[in-house]
Amino acid sequence: KQEVTQIPAALSVPEGENLVLNCSFTDSAIYNLQWFRQDPGKGLTSLLLIQSSQREQTSGRLNASLDKSSGRSTLYIAASQPGDSATYLCAVEMDSSYKLIFGSGTRLLVRP
Amino acid sequence: DAGITQSPRHKVTETGTPVTLRCHQTENHRYMYWYRQDPGHGLRLIHYSYGVKDTDKGEVSDGYSVSRSKTEDFLLTLESATSSQTSVYFCAISERSETDTQYFGPGTRLTVL
Fold this sequence. Notes:
The structure holds two protein chains of two kinds. In chain A, about 0% of the residues lie in helices and about 60% in strands. Chain A contains no helices and eleven strands. Chain A has strands spanning about 5, 10-15, 20-25, 30-40, 45-50, 55-60, 60-65, 70-75, 85-95, 100, 105-110. By secondary structure, chain B is mainly beta. Helix content of chain B is about 0%, strand content about 60%. Chain B is built from no helices and eleven strands. Chain B has strands at about 5, 10-15, 20-25, 30-40, 40-50, 55, 65-70, 75-80, 85-95, 105, 110. In chain B, the strands form two sheets. In chain B, strands 2, 4, 5, 6, 9, 10 and 11 form a seven-stranded mixed beta sheet that branches. In chain B, a hairpin with an 8-residue loop joins strand 9 and strand 10. At the A-B interface, strand 5 and strand 10 of A face strand 5, strand 9 and strand 10 of B.
């Protein structure tokens, strides 16, 4: 059974710092891996989607990498801003099953 | 934002009563999903639909049923609500291309007393 783990559960950094969020999964037979952002009391917003054949995806200050063989993904946020404060969730999709399996998230606080 | 609405947004009910949550989309996407979100568990899939009248179970389907009679509406029913079903429920939609993600609604906070 696929399990997705995110460490740390919470992170507090000063504004301007570069940071890395980690996601690990137990079964490497994934179809894709996705990173989402969730603001308090809101739904999820997609940030990046990495196909199983890809190594990384970039969008603005965000860069996500994928290493299937080791079962790991990282989300790199450059020059963090207070507006980046949110919970970040990673999710994997198994073999085009249309079902996402989520980690429990990392709650990020960027201090002004 | 993708055109997804959920109703009601908040509901308080008593143990043993039936509850129906509605998800409505204006995107004409084929796939629709119901998740629940609980502290420490992330989001877990309850049921999903891959077309009108076509549904399947997810990871935590016990105690829940779904129906989809129109492309735009996906209903989640708790036949007899229990306190363990107190949660935040999210609906999502997708079109299922290789690069397509899921788009989430704003959520429904359900409290079962």
